[in-house]
Specification:
The protein is mainly alpha-helical and 523 residues long. Helices cover 74% and strands 0% of the residues. 52% of the residues are buried.
Length: 523
């Protein structure tokens, strides 16, 4: 059994970096306009969309965190992975046809068309801040910590800047197409590498599931946890996880931009459903290996050290480099996706409306400049997180504050046609304000409700605000909002001439059955 990183492994990682940069620059030569940069010329097929969605969602902290949590506390956090299929199904059935018909480039643009520009600017501003200061900087910070576990001599600042520059360069010049193509490669590397690790761990346990179960405490493999569980209590599984998932997979520019770049409605839907199936995989190649490690290597004190320990102590030379390349892939795919989506929001939602005469080439130029600026901001902030770990924890929990009002104005706003611009705007303002108040109360030990249940509570509060304010003010123009609200037959659009086995609704049924079976297995 080898321990450490060999020169062969390092060569594999360097080769991966060179490959990614070459692909990025090759695509950059074909990226001319703003639509090329931000939507890949609307040319993506379903396979690229599905793989890119999977890769951009899986970060290094996800891999480390899922494996470590499975080792220390159990598999409950895996619900964020395999239950992602539910919000992806909602997006495929309802929101993707509305988005594509609207010909939008950013999700906040949809709010402008459905409500008004105030809601667009609020949502876009929140999205840019959270994506750069939390998603991008967080990916760089966590990725640097992961790499330091393998290469202890690395400096935080130089490593974060190096990762940001590599991802930022090919993203700035190649745009979303470079992001999607590199993401697809990164997804394959990640799945193959982690699958090999899982196989070798299971092999050491003589392929005996009973040995895995015997080494874990009672309830370790249960996702339905007691009310006092610090991870995800069972009410949070119902009240919080679905809405957090809906916001992430249906309204988040960082994610949904790939579907906006689809070559057609069916490819967008097939890609989303494929992503739903792919999101089941981490349960088996990232979560369960953590439980296997408990049987093989008991006594590891730090959960975050479990995955690096497995990579350096279980895998042979060469395969270690492949898995490490997969880990770096997860970092890069998160960073490039966040940079591209944020630059899209800045240019399309803020710069273009104030400069209506910009050409496609001008928009591409602004997009590249914005990407580089945001790359530097994220790289500068990432090392500072180590000095403000308490603040960073707070920022992560802020997602539970900003999600409910956003989820409501999208989900309720599409079905409640009486909902108007005033209702949406005040839902965002008051819903976010009340969420911040609950956050402050909980941090001062005055509110003792788990954050996942807070999400459910704030969804109900935000719904009341949206409905009441809308009913108290003038109704919207029905004709003006017709194309941006639910219509009969929306789910069937584009499927009229397809055989049953190509109908995305058939795939949805299979995905629901798979999710239900996993819930049954790990109840």
């Amino acid at each position: 059994m080898q321990s450490g990183i060999s020169n062969i492994d390092i060569a594999i990682v360097i080769g991966y970096f060179i490959l990614v940069l070459c692909i990025g620059f090759w695509i950059a030569r074909r990226t001319k306009t703003g639509e090329d940069l931000f939507l890949g010329g609307r040319s993506f097929g379903w396979g690229l969309i599905g793989l890119s969605l999977f890769a951009s969602n899986i970060s290094s902290s996800t891999i480390i965190g899922l494996t470590g949590a499975a080792y220390t506390t159990g598999i409950v956090n895996s619900v964020y992975e395999w239950m992602s299929g539910i919000p992806l199904i909602i997006a495929a059935l309802i929101f993707i046809p509305l988005y594509l018909k609207s010909r939008i480039t950013t999700i906040p643009e949809f709010l402008e068309k459905r409500f008004d520009r105030r809601s667009q600017l609020f949502f876009s501003g929140v999205s840019i801040f959270s994506t750069i200061m939390i998603e991008t900087a967080g990916a760089l910070y966590a990725g640097t910590l992961v790499l330091q576990a393998f290469f202890p001599g690395l400096e935080m600042w130089y490593t974060a800047l190096g990762l940001a520059m590599i991802a930022g360069i090919y993203t700035a010049f190649g745009g979303l197409k470079a992001v999607v193509y590199t993401d697809a490669i990164q997804a394959v590397i990640l799945i193959v590498g982690c699958s090999i690790l899982t196989y070798m761990l299971y092999q050491q346990l003589d392929f005996s599931w009973d040995k895995v179960l015997a080494s874990t405490p009672e309830g370790h493999f249960s996702v339905v946890r007691p009310l006092d569980d610090p991870g995800i209590p069972w009410p949070g599984l119902i009240m919080g996880v679905p809405f957090l998932g809906f916001w992430y997979w249906s309204t988040n520019q960082y994610i949904i931009q790939r579907a906006l770049g689809a070559k057609g409605l069916n490819h967008a839907r097939w890609g989303l459903v494929l992503a739903g199936f792919l999101k089941v995989i981490p349960l088996f190649i990232m979560v369960i290996p953590g439980a296997m490690a408990l049987a093989l290597f008991p006594g590891l004190e730090n959960g975050d050290a479990v995955f690096p320990y497995l990579v350096t102590n279980v895998l042979p030379v060469g395969i270690t480099g492949l898995v490490l390349a997969g880990l770096i892939s997860a970092i890069m795919s998160s960073v490039d996706s966040a940079l591209n989506s944020s630059s899209t929001l800045v240019v399309i939602d803020f710069i273009k409306p104030n400069n209506p005469d910009l050409t496609g080439e001008d928009i591409a130029k602004y997009g590249r400049i914005t990407t580089v600026v945001l790359m530097l901001v994220a790289a500068l902030w990432a090392p500072q997180i180590q000095n403000f770990t308490g603040l960073w924890d707070y920022l992560q929990q802020m997602f539970s504050i900003m999600v409910p009002p956003i989820a409501v104005i999208f989900l309720v706003g599409v079905f409640f046609k009486r909902g108007n611009a005033e209702g949406a705007f005040w839902t965002l303002i008051l819903g976010t304000g009340i969420g911040i108040l609950l956050f402050i109360l909980s941090e001062n030990d005055l509110w003792h409700v788990h954050y996942t249940m807070n999400v459910g509570i704030m969804v109900m509060v935000s719904t009341v605000i949206f409905v009441v304010v809308s009913l108290m003010t003038d109704p919207p123009n029905e004709e003006a909002i017709a194309a941006f609200t639910y219509q009969e037959g929306l789910a069937a659009q584009g499927t009229e001439d397809l055989p049953w086995y190509l109908d995305y609704r058939t795939h949805i049924v299979l995905l629901i059955l798979l999710i239900g079976y996993i819930l049954y297995l790990f109840w």
